Amino acid sequence: MQLRKPTPSGALLALVAAPQLASAFYLPGVAPTSYKQDEQVPLYVNAIRPVAGADAMLHSVVSYDYYHPIFQFCRPPDGPKDVGASLGSILFGDRIKTSSFQLHMAKNETCKTLCETTYPPSAAQFINSLMNAGVSLNWLVDGLPAGQRIIDEISDTEFYNPGFLMGQHIGDTEKVQFNNHYDIIVEYHAVPGAKDEYRVVGVIVQPESRKYTGPVEADTCNQALDPVVLDEGADTKVTFTYSVYWVPSKTAWATRWDKYLHVFDPKIHWFSLVNSAFIVVFLVLTVMSILVRALRKDIARYNRLDQLSLDDLSGTSAVMEDGVQEDSGWKLVHGDVFRTPSHPLLLSVLLGNGAQLFVMTGLTIAFALLGFLSPSNRGSLGTIIILLYTVLGFIGGYTSSRLYKSMQGDRWKLCIILTPLLVPGIVFGVFFLLDLFLWAEQSSGAVPFTTMLAIILIWFLISVPLSFAGSWLGFRAPTIEPPVRTNQIPRQIPPVTTYLRPIPSALLVGLLPFGAIFVELYFIMSSIWFSRIYYMFGFLFLCYGLMIMTCASVTVLLVYFLLCAENYNWQWRAFLAPATTAVYIFLNAIIYWISKLSLGGFVGSVLYIGYSLMISFLFFILTGSIGFFASWMFVRKIYSSIKID
Ligand SMILES: *[C@@H]1O[C@H](CO)[C@@H](O)[C@H](O)[C@H]1NC(C)=O
């Protein structure tokens, strides 16, 4: 066995040297498969996906099933079968099916015929337009994606890029060739110490276009032939063929994925991250130290004032002077700062969901750091996200009900019901709508009905009851009492100065957390839209930490300024101001759209905007909640450290 067990020190190492080491961890459950000489090695086909075209732009986001009738790809004699896949892998777009390719371990075979088909003009038109935009076939051999060997010119290293083109332009012409021959190159090695056992450690497919004129023999593939161009005016006959070459390789089984995990320009990646980390940490420390010093002075002054006025009831000029000073500052609003905010129900529900998201994200990244979400374990990321979100419904319910109770809310039934339904309902609703669009396009991206049903069942049978249980516990727990009493009559709020007005202050506050995650966001987006493998969880972990720090500290600063300006309506501001990070994330998605994608067609645009909105919405709740909870702790802390008579 060459599996490496994840260890705490390993996780730490992975964190420090993420791009190199994170790839070396594998889920203990993924065991290597050994094959005997000539034993059949299955080749599975996955969805046909859009890729960047010749102009390096992505032109579509709609993927198709490999066996969509219009492509007429060769089917196995007894029909293609679904290969069992996890929920996460299906949600993330995998549609893995069996194929009619015959690969025999360590046996070279050339020019085998798969099947023959005829493409009518309508199909030719459709396929040509797809190939024009850029579209790739995705196969799996022994769990490894069939890739293409690519040289990264910047670092001059070789790596395997999953997927290969269905067809491409012939030279610089407008004509598109249709690839009907595949050279499948499988790298393998004999298992050391075992007799007649071999393992697959790398798969490359070099597609070719060959217009066969006569019968296909084993050596036909050495002849030079013209490429096949699908005729849009008449039927085109196409023969599909393939050759299999088994090339011995020294790659160890445990590191076979390393070739697929390539970091483009790692120096820039590191540089920008370290750069933003420095700026963020510096900023946060500066802000915090100023704030702490100001607060210490405030608290000392307030408490000295109390002392003086008690000691000397006759009143001296010193007290008068300080008394004048006391007319400003955050102490003045002590009778209002814990007043119930408007719409406490909505705020509690959002915050409950925010707490749930917060813990889920943290745990997911922790699992990823421990190596459980390696790309070799397909779909594990999606599965773990769903699993964690479901189980953490408990935390959501508990948090929202506890907060709602402390805000003197009385519609507690509504609070219990809305917590597990409102936010997930919005996300699911958008997801379902987008799915309808995909379904209308006959895309394989549309989640199958059974998966949809499974999600709804998990939601209502596990997540909702858990949330109810959490809410029940939350309402039974003692009320969180504010450290100071709230007055009967609300104070008047003086008019606000420019930078404290809601919109400018929110935009300022949201900008900083966005700055912390901006670089990583770019890589996540390119992994989502260009279907690149994302595995830089070390970076992600650092970014998440930076985002939490900035969110918390800038919001606390804003709340401090608000209270100093005697504006005690801080609760919603503390939620909405950091939540504007989501606005920047959405704007960033739009800029990404303009610079990297050129989505032709209505459906592509709707899908892109829809998914971007969904992700932004989740960030809205997450960052808002981080800001709120940080401010909440801050406000409780400062008001419990002053004496009020
Ligand atoms: C198969 O062909 C490749 C390329 O020609 C060669 O390197 C390899 O040794 C061959 N493998 C076997 C098992 O004959």
Short summary of the structure?
With 645 residues, the chain is α+β, with helices and mostly antiparallel strands. Helix content is 49%, strand content 14%.
The pLDDT mean sits at: 87
List all distinct small molecules, including ions and cofactors, that are bound in this structure: 2-acetamido-2-deoxy-beta-D-glucopyranose
Global morphology: elongated
Total tally of structural domains: 3
Query: What kind of sheet is the major sheet?
Result: 5 strands, antiparallel
Keywords: Membrane, Signal, Transmembrane, Transmembrane helix
Signal peptide: 1-24
Pfam families: EMP70
Membrane topology: Multi-pass membrane protein
Features:
single chain, 645 residues, alpha+beta, 3 domains, 5-stranded antiparallel beta sheet, 4-stranded mixed beta sheet, binds 2-acetamido-2-deoxy-beta-D-glucopyranose
Q: Any overview of this molecule?
A:
This protein has 645 residues and is α+β, with helices and mostly antiparallel strands. It has 16 helices and 15 strands. It folds into 3 domains: 2-19 and 36-262, no CATH class; 265-328 and 501-645, no CATH class; 342-479, no CATH class. The strands form 5 sheets. Strands 2, 3, 6, 7 and 10 form a 5-stranded antiparallel beta sheet that branches. It binds 2-acetamido-2-deoxy-beta-D-glucopyranose. 2-acetamido-2-deoxy-beta-D-glucopyranose binds at residues 106, 108, 245-247.
